[in-house]
Write a structure and sequence with these properties.
Radius of gyration: 24 Å
Number of strands: 16
CATH superfamily of the largest domain: P-loop containing nucleotide triphosphate hydrolases
Distance between the termini: 35 Å
Strand content: 15-25%
Oligomer: single chain
Structural class: alpha/beta
Largest sheet: 6 strands, mixed
Helix content: 40-55%
Shape: globular
Strand order of the largest sheet: 2-1-3-5-6-4
CATH topology of the largest domain: Rossmann fold
CATH class of the largest domain: Alpha Beta
Number of helices: 16
Length: about 400
């Protein structure tokens, strides 16, 4: 059975991995330009497939029959080619968005809900929210309710982002300033890459319960796989896949004092897990075209911190890496969200008398005791967990992996 995902740009997709865990069929990424859509739908190499941006409404005319959900929503994300060659269209996104609401546990009935965007995902979110009794307002670039007059809906309790703003590779962008919506009690973002969009991070900083789109992606895939195969897949399977995906795709990020062993331990974590290891010092040196000690001979620390942030931004938007950071990255608040958008941050602590200084310009210039005293609160604020070095790098790596798995399964 030939299955897959139809869209225009799909390099960020986790769908092949999800479907590989759901059933035994091929699942390919079909990147199709608009002018080739007709030919692909009529004669492409597929038997069943999911549909994503920007084709969720464009495929409807090709469907001989629509499910009740797809007909009511006006958006299709699942196509099945029947024995006679005709196409059946369904919407399993509704099950996915419902799962997001259930997992978040936020009350919806009687609440005002703002849905950002007017595409296919927006239609689905509106449908589910209205079915659950919410008053739904669509915010778009034009029309009576838009981003310029958002304050007229300052009483909104629910915010759902269905736009691609903030999606990889444009991490760090946000569709709206949450300070304009002071009464929010829940934020949902259908984006799943990065795991924590800027919108979600802003919500978390304000104490607003929030959830990303990975739950929706997995649950809609479970429902789509049932349509593809005609088999029933238990809901518990979606929970298992969600947990596995989090463990596989989140970065493992090591922070700590210069010389604490982040690079050595990071390599030992990466090797058995099959992950790529990235030392941010190497990224910085590649960017600046010289060694870090040489850079400090002609540049000051603020210039270095700018280069460091650039390296963090470029590296941490990726997924499934082991990343060793520089000891002072936590001195820059701007790095907090960058590090955490796709990763679990672990503070590797090592006794000060074991920290080497050679080749570390800032360690040579400053007292390690003073540096540690000033940075310790920052390490603790940035980190999801604190792990003490065992003195044996291999054992420390094992210990950090244990902590990572525990956190990623929550």
């Amino acid at each position: 059975m030939r299955c897959g995902l139809l869209g225009r740009k799909l390099g960020h997709s986790f769908s092949p991995r999800i479907h590989a865990m759901l059933a035994d069929y091929s699942y390919d990424l079909f990147e199709v330009e608009p002018d080739a859509l007709d030919a692909f739908l009529r004669g492409g190499p597929w038997d069943a497939m999911n549909v994503t941006i920007p084709y969720k409404r464009d495929v409807i005319p090709y469907c001989a029959e629509l499910s009740p959900a797809a007909r009511q929503i006006g958006s299709v994300n699942t196509l099945v080619k029947r024995g006679d060659g005709s196409i059946f269209g369904d919407n399993t996104d509704a099950a996915g968005f419902s799962a997001m609401l259930d997992r978040l546990g936020a009350p919806v009935a009687g609440k005002k809900a703002l849905v950002l965007g007017s595409g296919g995902a927006s239609l689905t979110a509106r449908h589910v929210l209205r079915e659950r009794g919410a008053e739904v307002i669509v915010i778009s670039r034009g029309g009576p309710d838009n981003y310029e007059n958002l304050e007229r809906h300052a009483d909104a309790a629910i915010l759902a982002n269905t736009t691609p703003v903030g999606m990889y590779p444009n991490n760090g962008e946000t569709p709206v300033d949450l300070s304009r919506l002071p009464n929010l009690t829940a934020v949902l973002d259908v984006i799943y890459n990065p795991a924590r969009t800027r919108l979600m991070q802003d919500a978390a900083a304000r104490g607003i319960p929030c959830i990303g789109g990975l739950t929706m992606l997995v649950e809609q895939a479970r429902a789509a796989s049932e349509r593809f195969t005609g088999l029933t897949i238990p809901a518990t399977r979606a929970d298992e896949i969600l947990s596995a995906l989090r463990e596989e795709t989140q970065n493992i990020i090591l922070i700590g004092m210069p010389g604490s062993g982040k690079t050595t331990v990071g390599r030992l974590i990466a090797e058995p897990t099959g992950r790529e290891f990235v030392d941010l010092d190497d990224v910085i040196e590649a960017n600046i075209g010289m060694t870090i000690p040489a850079f400090f001979e002609t540049h000051d620390e603020p210039a270095f911190r700018d280069e460091e942030t650039r390296a963090i931004a470029d590296t941490c938007k990726r997924s499934g890496l082991v990343i060793a950071t520089g000891g002072g990255c936590v001195t820059q608040p701007r790095n907090f969200n960058l590090l955490r958008q796709n990763g679990v941050v672990l503070f590797l602590e090592r006794a000060l008398d074991l920290l080497p200084k050679k080749g570390r310009p800032l360690s040579l210039r400053n007292s390690l005791e003073e540096m540690y005293a000033s940075r310790l609160p920052l390490y603790l604020a940035f980190a999801d967990a604190r792990v003490e070095s065992t003195g044996v790098p291999a054992r420390t790596a094992e210990k950090m992996l244990e902590v990572y798995h525990e956190i990623s399964r929550r």
